Amino acid sequence: MRAPTPTQELLRLGFTDPRRAAGLLGEPVLAEPLARAEDAGAPLPAALGQVADPDLALLTLVRLLEAAQDDDGAPDLTAVLAADGGHRRRLLAVLGSSSALGDMLVARPTDAALLADEHAEGVLDLTPQDEREWALQAVGADPADPAPVATVTGTDGVEALRRCYRRRLLEVAAADLTSPDPLAAFPAVAGALSDLASAALEAALAVARADLPDHGRGTRLAVLGMGKTGGRELNYISDVDVVYVVAPGEGTDEDEATAVGARLAGALAKNVSGAVGAEPPLWPVDANLRPEGKDGPLVRTVASHVAYYERWAKTWEFQALLKARPVAGDAALGAEYVAAVEPFVWSAVGRENFVEDSQAMRRRVEDTIPAAEAERQLKLGRGGLRDVEFTVQLLQLVHGRTEEAIRTAGTLDAIARLAETGYIGRDSAERLDECYRYLRVLEHRMQLYRLRRTHVIPTGEADLRRLARALPGEGQRSAEALERRLRTVRREVRDLHEDIFYRPMLPLIAQLSHADARLRPEAVRERLAAIGYRDPAGAVRHLDALTAGVSRTAAIQRQILPAMLGMFARGADPDGGLLAFRKVSEALGSTHWYLQMLRDSGVAAPRLSYLLATSRYVADGLEALPEAAVWLGEDEPLRPRTPEQLAREAAALVRRRPAPEEAVRAVRYLRRRELLRGAVGDALDGVRDDRDRTVLSVAADQALTTTLEVALRRAAEQRGLAASPTRFGIVAMGRLGGQEMGYGSDADVLFVHEPLEGEDDDVAQEVAVAVAGHVRALLGNPGPELPLPVDSALRPEGRNGPMVRSLASYAQYYERWAEPWEQQALLRARPVAGDAGLLERFCALIDPYRYPADGLDDRALRELRRVKARVESERMPRGVPASRQLKLGRGGLSDVEWTAQLLQLQHAGRVPELRTPRTVEALAAARDAGVLGEEDCELLVTAWTLASRLRAGIALATGRVTGAKMDVLPHDPAQLTAVARLLGYGPGESVDLEEDYLRATRRARAVVERIFFG
């Protein structure tokens, strides 16, 4: 294989203009360094190939070597370049990343000595006090003096402080650029840059004092750093935001001190930013965050600041104060200012619409970005630095009034503390931290190039390539790789920002009083009593149990509970809701998703609190199946599962459980879960009248279908048979057949079988009886999962007849003995499980009896009316007014169902549309066929629907699904209120529900009297 040419080798090393690079490498000034480095086994071109921009580094190196030849104080750069040491790495890294710092070294080659090992060690470990001493000594001021005065004054003093700053900046940049992990080093780099700026401000103030006759001795002036300066997270080049505070010294009045303070502040800014001397300005000093901005006085006393913040300050001004920190001048006065304004910061959340205003301000900032820059704005754009900073600051301001641990100025420190205290999830905090570090390091690399303030990501190939090579990451050193990574980071930041910054819980928490937000016992008891808790002391005990300790779980509970207490109070039973919440939380508190969902989701906390405080059925269900709480975070999990979905899930469960009991137990669990899903949906949606069909009956159908499969296999195996000798089917009857089940309904069924050809009838009957018995036992026996009682009392001859009949036996019975009530019961027959052909033949068998071609004869009609009257007189529970009995009462469920079924028996023989097992559909078909008036139909449907919803509401409110009270309109005001709330009635409208029901059933009964009884 041929050796690469010099041009190819330079391209491989990263040079983009190999011809020019080859020419520069041939410059005489590089001859000795190149040779010595080659001899030492540390070739210089390879070292240049490691930096961000090898072409820039080589060109600047040649210029530096040429300049050093004429500077007797310059270090021996040939020796530096000859060895692969830290000095060479730092020098080349600076030359390859910053043309501005390279130019500074060319102008002063002696400064290259600052990059030697003895200077580089501990560069990022210096304290703010160390930096202050360096800067003050540079202008001849005494660091021990509380109000130091420069002895190097005027232009000389300004140039001295600027040179001192830039020399230290060079050292910090070199340490940053050669750090093995720039993201990890970022906080130290940003802190060092902030301390350099603070020291420069201190030195500039010392020079300003020197220009006054009395050096300003009668005036105390403090400089407060704001923004990134205050947070010790400054950029390489940025406006330094400050606020000035003045106070008179002994023997000086306030007006004089204010005037002198303004002169000192003006001179300080000029010394840093003005056109003074040969040294260029450092960076703008921006005092526009002061009260009234540009229109306000440059300096104020502490009292004047406080007066402004008490009366006039806007929301954003309190957010700005979050980072206020004394950085120069009178430290005691600065601390006094911080102590005076800090209460405003942590009480600002109590201002009206505070959270909404903060969110709106972020949106306005985005709207101000020019369209051409929107996608490349690193600071203000979507997924940029401001997304992280606004997110963190809003959380601090909302929660910081009660959580002192998160009161910190630095963004990364705040992220860590918010994670420790549970206000941000650990994963989210880790991602925010990493993305923010990456964006800030990218910002630093962009600014270092020319030491100019910029936040717009360049578009040029060379600029992007230089940035990519200056950032960490193997395989990420191309412009395309940088763009891909940046898109990923910004997308992740934006997603986190939108998830956290727009948390629905934040405005709710912000609206709480300070005492309520802190959950102080006395204040909480008063609040709980005021908003409707019956036992405030008991509620406080639950709160104590949920929030006690220093665990992350307790910390998150302390965040969300103050807002959720009011949510529980919107339900019918806030005390019960809080108790149930405690039980669910204790069951799920250690999971990673539960409290995070309540904190971050827009709907989970309101839904859960309402459900637990309104529905005992749901509360009991969530205590038994706490993992179902995950449904509340989104809408999709609450949607009913389709029959096909349930069938697939049931089949999978059975395949994994060969034992019949275990298989059916899994199916019973599936039904319990779906009942809970239906109950949650009912409670949230106002108890819709179709939940029985889409959830409750579907779940029962699947339970019967799967259990029958298991029972057939078990019966055959017990008899040593390879397969069942008979076809088997289950026919749904009653409310199951009509798909009108309630939460406590039994499964009314008929069992039918048909021996296979050649099989013995007695054996087939024996197996069929065993199958039916297995179905009833597997579903109905007590156990850990909710039973489904299977009732076959509607079979021929009732409980006195055989539990299972063959198809031929049914045919014989109905032909000879069918009674009108049995014909009526068959109207609800619906195939549900088993052999499809057999079920089809069974339906064909019973159709002539339930849909008689000539309708009912007079004898049958009289018999139905007699039975109905007997039911009303004998089965009505004692002591219950007929007007309040939902099932058997006047105008109730039974009245409407018997009327609909009478119309079916009379007319379904000639009106096929009447052939439906569902009550409301039958009434609608009767109306459409002209056998029931439209108004009568509406009255019957209204009464039946309201009674059905009431039954479901009573079950949901009380948690009881059996017993006489299930079918009685409640007298108890508390229970009636709970039911009314579930049915969508507002607070105080339970009487309206009562009146609506009594009126609807009274009108329906009139229709029943006329149509059914004639």
Structural features:
five-stranded mixed beta sheet; 5% strand; mainly alpha; single chain; 46 helices; 1014 residues
State the helical fraction: 55-70%
User: Which of globular, elongated, flat, extended, rod-shaped describes the shape?
Assistant: elongated
Radius of gyration: 41 Å
End-to-end Cα distance: 109 Å
Low-confidence stretches: none
Count of β-strands: 10
Q: Indicate the structural class.
A: mainly alpha
Largest sheet: 5 strands, mixed
Helix/strand layout:
Elements: H1 6-13, H2 18-25, H3 31-39, H4 44-48, H5 54-69, H6 77-82, H7 86-97, H8 99-107, H9 117-120, H10 128-138, H11 154-177, H12 182-210, E1 219-225, H13 227-230, E2 240-248, H14 254-273, E3 285-286, E4 299-300, H15 302-311, H16 315-321, E5 325-329, H17 331-347, H18 354-367, H19 385-399, H20 411-420, H21 426-450, H22 461-470, H23 479-501, H24 505-510, H25 514-518, H26 521-531, H27 536-547, H28 552-569, H29 574-588, H30 594-600, H31 604-614, H32 616-624, H33 643-655, H34 660-685, H35 691-718, E6 726-732, H36 734-737, E7 747-755, H37 761-780, E8 790-791, E9 804-806, H38 807-817, H39 820-826, E10 830-834, H40 836-850, H41 858-874, H42 893-907, H43 919-929, H44 934-958, H45 973-982, H46 990-1011
Helix pairs in contact: 1-2, 2-5, 5-7, 5-8, 7-11, 10-11, 10-12, 11-12, 12-14, 12-21, 15-17, 19-20, 19-23, 20-21, 21-23, 22-23, 26-27, 27-29, 28-29, 28-30, 28-31, 29-31, 29-32, 32-34, 33-34, 33-35, 34-35, 35-37, 38-40, 39-40, 42-43, 43-44, 44-45, 44-46, 45-46
